[in-house]
Amino acid sequence: MEETYKRKLSEHIALLELEPTSKNLFIEGPEDGNIFELFLDFHSINDVQIYPIDIIDFSELDENIFSNREKVLLLSRKIYEKFDNSLNNIACVIDKDFDVLNENFNVNPYLYYTDYANLEMYLFNNKSLNKILKIGLKNFPLSSEEVIKTLTPILVDNFCLRYAREKINCSYQLIQPEKIFNYSQGGITYNQQEILNKFLVKNNCVNKLEDFKKEIEFVKDKFKELNEPRLFIHGKDFLEFFFLLIKKIKNTYSYTLKTFTRAVFLSIENDLLNSYGLFSNIELKYRKI
């Protein structure tokens, strides 16, 4: 199979100079594109090109760019440096991720943040989860409210650990999801301190216990202050832990993580997306006058 050609960053900037009225939406990954494509279709907006950032080759830059999020952020900066605020139809969307903790938000007219930690959090609500539980699972014994109540503390704790790892040593490996909690006789068995101890032993860094406690406590304090769990949940954790809960209780249709993830994204409610700042701003930018 012939390899898909990737334009270099400079080539893409030059293309925008030649076609300044083109409507482009740049996102972190191809899966994200499905959400935006369905949302724009819902509003009968069909002239926007949605590009996963991997279509651009950043190799000509003498910079270490480790993630797709960093690439989208860098692209927005380069566009701003070249065009100031003269392009009206360009948007670059990134996850809030840990920025809500550090209040380290970048600002330019082309950059848009998710309302919560990541795009997956637009699915972490009663209406969307109820849809997947009723249609995608059939006779599942827990309600959407119970699923959210059950998973939220575990997901927030894992977000805290992810943040601490990022601050102390990002090479440390997390505990595998299937080893974090058990479900039996209608209840969850989960111990935050036990998971932290396993993590420290696994990474041979028991001597850093106090460092991890300090960073985790920082996130917990911020969590109490903002009182919005969706700012403190990692998207991948949500999908994996939700799937594990399904497997442990009742996997009616023998989902795999991949097929379950697709089913979860099908539960998205386009009319509900309109109530969020990111999507209302995207609709406002691209709607037909």
Automatic annotation (TrEMBL):
Residues 25-250 form the DUF4435 domain. Pfam families: DUF4435. InterPro entries: DUF4435 (IPR029492). It comes from the Bacteria. This is DUF4435 domain-containing protein.
